[in-house]
Amino acid sequence: MDLKEEILKLKEELDVTLVAHFYQRDEVFELADITGDSLELARKAKETDSKYVVFCGVGFMGESVKVLSPEKTVLMPKIACCAMARMIDEGYYEQNLKQINEAGIANEDILPITYINSSAAVKAKVGEMGGMVCTSSNAYKIIEKGLESGKKIFFVPDRCLGQNFAKQMNLKSAIVGDGSDLKEADIICYNGFCSVHQLFTVDDVEFYREKYPDILVAVHPECDPSVCDAADFVGSTSQLIQYIKDLPIEQKVVVGTEFNMVNRLRDKNTYILSSTKPECPTMNETTLEDVYRTLKSIKDNNISEETLIKVNDETIKWARVALERMLEI
């Protein structure tokens, strides 16, 4: 059976939109109706008329679609869990707040901001506390707006993103639990990180600069601050794509982000900032077989509970509040 052909047939027959994140395998990415970064995909999926959204990505992304479009049936061929998002849940969130309180900072003096890479439950916690969501593209603007409240920012879950934007804004940052002075910080960071972006090091940057003296270094802000400091350009997934596409093809560039995305950017003069292959293991879980099985289950009216994204009404309410506060800005 030609899976690609069967998937294309099922897409024609069904009231469905197939969505894929930039980090998905090429064979999955190429069949999608909508491709992009996480929040961008949730917003585009909301705008479709399709009853069903089949989302190829990781769990928090499917939840974001459900939060913004509760009327849609959202399915994921593999409900893989982003390692960073898995580092924080409601319990860990509350434990961190307790540690911040013990440092002499009251909840009313804290404004939480959560990176989009978090569960709907964590987004709901943030929404209930008056906080909002951000992406790597708009984090500077969201943090800047948040600071107008006069409160300290509690940034979850990615410490690198929080630290990098604090440095960019000439602010002080601290990480909960590492012994640093939380009271002195403008941005208090949860101690989470992206396992893929932690692979890139300053040694990697120096290696490429020595090998190709004219090379440009472009990295994602989920990288360690030392790597971002050594780069020529730091930007979100969509910003990296645009930056690299705007370069002359003769210009060599080395990129510090997920392999699958970088690999499809240009035909030459584009390198990966690592001696190993920086593939996101959870993003690569979804296969053509999984996509076919999910579409076939819709046709057969036999949808598996294992593929269905469910978010309770109360969580949808507050997670949506946190997302809408961001969208208003």
Structure, described:
The strands form 3 sheets. The chain has a 5-stranded parallel sheet, sandwiched between helices. Strands 2-1-3-4 form a 4-stranded parallel sheet, sandwiched between helices. A 4-stranded parallel sheet has the order 11-10-12-13, with helices on both faces. The model has no long low-confidence stretch (mean pLDDT 95). With 329 residues, it is α/β, with parallel strands linked by helices. α4 links the parallel β3 and β4 (73-75). Helix content is 42%, strand content 15%. The chain starts with a helix and ends with a helix. α1 (3-13) packs parallel to α14 (288-299), α3 (38-47) packs parallel to α4 and α7 (120-128) packs across α15 (313-328). The radius of gyration is 20 Å and the shape is globular.
